[in-house]
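Re: your question about BTB/POZ domain-containing protein

S., sorry for the slow reply, the queue was backed up all week. Below is exactly what I fed in.
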Amino acid sequence: MSFSQELINDYEKLFEANKGHDVIIYTGKDENVKKLYAHSLILCIRSQYFHAAFSNEWAEKKDGIFILEKPNISPQIFKIILRFIYCGKIDLTKFQGSELLDLLIAVDELSIQSLISCIQEYLINNQYKFLQEDPIEILETVYHVYQCDTFAGLWDSFLEAICDKPEILFNSDKLIEVKASILELLLKRDDLLLDEIVIWNNLIKWGFAQHPSVKQDDLKWDKEEIKIIKSTLCRFIPLIRFYHISSEDFQFNVYPFRALLPKDLINDILTFYMTPNKKNDIDIQLPRNPKYDTSIIKYQHFAIFSSWIEKKNDSYYYKTNIPYHYKLIYRASRDGTTAKSFHKKCDKKGPTIVVLKIKGSSQIIGGYNPFNWDTSKSYKYTTDSFMFSFTDRRNTKTAKVSYSTGTYSIGCYPTHGPIFGGDFSCKDCATTWRFNNYFHSYPDIKIQTGSIEVDDYEVFQVIKQKQNSHDKYNPFKKKYFLKSLFKR
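Result:
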């Protein structure tokens, strides 16, 4: 028999009764100041901050009552925190993004560790929703607090969200309100999913917005206006990957602003376009990571897959240093749902990752095959293949991986699509899979047994990245560029 809920209710009544208290907390400031009452014993047990305040007696004490002043925390926020301290009750769904950040800053100051983790996880899992509400306020608040190590992961997550869906900010009129320090951090990212010319055009737009008095027509600039804009943008120029802008876009969108660029950079870019054989003499930045063609997963999943492939299970790659490229070679809903369709697209392509989205669920499951798929009617044996599950594909913390024991690791049969361990496979219908777990080729990661209905599944060819290769740069129409350039 458990009376835990009864105990919780009694503590909530104690909190609301305002009786027997030995702590008075003045919260808010000016006309918003409000007194809140509490019990020091409960506060000490639940918060390191209050334990230090009352144990070391740096809190003022008058007539046996501890007096605390917290003008930087609003009465509403403090009352929510006290309720959580007393009875563990809080409903984060009722908060706006900015309110949650205020709450997070307050609970961090009061050292309520369990609530810090809870709020951060909720913010990360709902980051796109909050960024849609007000990207500027959210980014600036998170940027302000991320200087503290506690929130470094939160800041990285929100930056990744903007890079993954840059239209939230870059398609918004609010871009011009972004602080230079935040814009600089975004432009440093390798995973910012925008064409380089779009980044450049937005940077010019942002620069003009900082100086409304500067004429929009660059042909009418005087020396002072050139100096103003050049000074504003100088910190960003090295972050633009000009060599991944087409010659046409360079001519029409970059070259008109050549006064803002170092002369040696202009010369190098022109050399790049006009004499391709001299490209190796130029220090060319690698392109930003291309957007993966997938309707099921995100960048962070590929980073995790890469770590699992190399068996780095204690730490994951960041999205900016993924050592593999994942090329979509098969999507059941696009390429056909039969085993024959799978083998036509996936056989003899080397290592692959298979990803399934379970129907009516946020769960994704799948596996890694380090060999070729084929129709040899045989099994392959290895301890490098693995199966995985994300209970919630939006939350990478729900990830689980299971490496093959080395028996019946990968099955290759013309009558079936992918087979992992003789246990997990689809026959001739891509929307229905089975997981039997008879052979125990992969240790259990809580995948349901029996028939599994899926919305869709994708297969990615896993390609080891080359470190420094110039053979993937955009092709340029040299003759067109030369001809058009000298028309100016």
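The two ends are 86 Å apart (CA to CA). Residues 299-464 form one domain.

Happy to talk it through on Thursday.
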